[in-house]
Write a structure and sequence with these properties.
The complex is a heterodimer of chains A (77) and B (175). Chain A is mostly helical and 77 residues long. Chain A is built from four helices and no strands. In chain B, helix 2 runs antiparallel to helix 3 and helix 3 packs across helix 4. Chain B starts with a helix and ends in an 8-residue tail after the last helix. Classes of the chains: A mainly alpha (77), B mainly alpha (175).
Chain lengths: 77, 175
């Protein structure tokens, strides 16, 4: 059986069990719900975890004190 | 300044205008995937919440409709992933085409259950392609994958479903 035939057959079988969504109309305005969500969860401020700052500081220190490591680092990037 | 530029710049009125302009379309897309009005409403709000949060990344010269559809598809997919049923299917299943209405009803229920057992990414494309009969290109754009991959996923979903139904004794030949 070809893929097309196989899909068609399964499509028929599925449609017997699961009808296509006929009513896709939105029944109410969702803006009030959206407003509530905006008030409850203000957009998060992007924060960097302290561990990331620590790693960045270590990397910075290595680059300052051992500039010879820069080509090695670039090679591995 | 254009509406999309104002939205990207963080203007709340522009966001409200976009919300009111696109909520019906976003909802209609989501309800096709999740097939529940209440859940589709919540996911529509979640979609616009994600849109609002990532407004700074939106290219004002871009296509808001396509962007919203992509995000709504991801939101619906996340929902499918977390709502996936883990129920065991019964051993003896009748044909979906049996004469007895009660038997047919039973078979339809089992087919639904087998369908819900599919992994979310396959259920997504199978729902849109096989049940809702959406064009592969539209599904591909919404899911952020190629049309060829949509086709592959539909094929795999059909194969998985057939295997599952066969193992359960449901005759998979629709008439």
């Amino acid at each position: 059986m070809s893929n097309e035939e196989s899909n068609k057959e399964m499509k028929e079988l599925l449609k017997q069990a699961i009808a296509p969504a006929k009513d896709t109309e939105l029944r109410r305005d969702l803006w009030p719900q959206m407003l509530r969500k905006l008030k409850e969860q203000p957009a998060p401020v992007v924060s960097v975890p302290w561990l990331d700052w620590a790693l960045a500081a270590i990397l910075g220190a290595v680059l300052v004190f051992f500039p010879g490591s820069i080509p090695t680092l670039l090679y591995h990037l | 300044m254009e509406l999309l530029e104002r939205f990207a710049a963080g203007d709340p009125e522009a966001f409200e205008a976009l919300f009111r302009g696109y909520q019906k379309e976003v909802y209609a897309w989501i309800v096709r995937i999740v097939r529940d009005h209440g859940i589709a409403e919540d996911l529509t709000v979640e979609t616009f919440w994600r849109i609002y949060r990532s407004r700074a990344r939106f290219d004002a010269a871009g296509n808001f409709r396509a962007w919203a559809r992509r995000i709504s598809t991801n939101v619906a997919l996340d929902y499918l992933r977390h709502s996936r049923r883990e129920t065991e299917l019964p051993e003896d299943l009748p044909s979906a085409n049996a004469g007895d209405p009660a038997v047919r009803r039973e078979a339809r229920e089992r087919i639904k259950e087998a369908f819900q057992e599919l992994p979310a990414k396959y259920r997504l494309v199978a729902t849109l392609a096989l049940i809702e009969e959406q064009p592969y290109n539209d599904i591909a754009e919404a899911a952020g994958i190629s049309a060829a991959l949509v086709k592959v996923r539909v094929f795999r979903a059909v194969r998985m479903l057939r295997k599952k139904l066969n193992s359960l004794g449901v005759e998979a030949n629709a008439k």
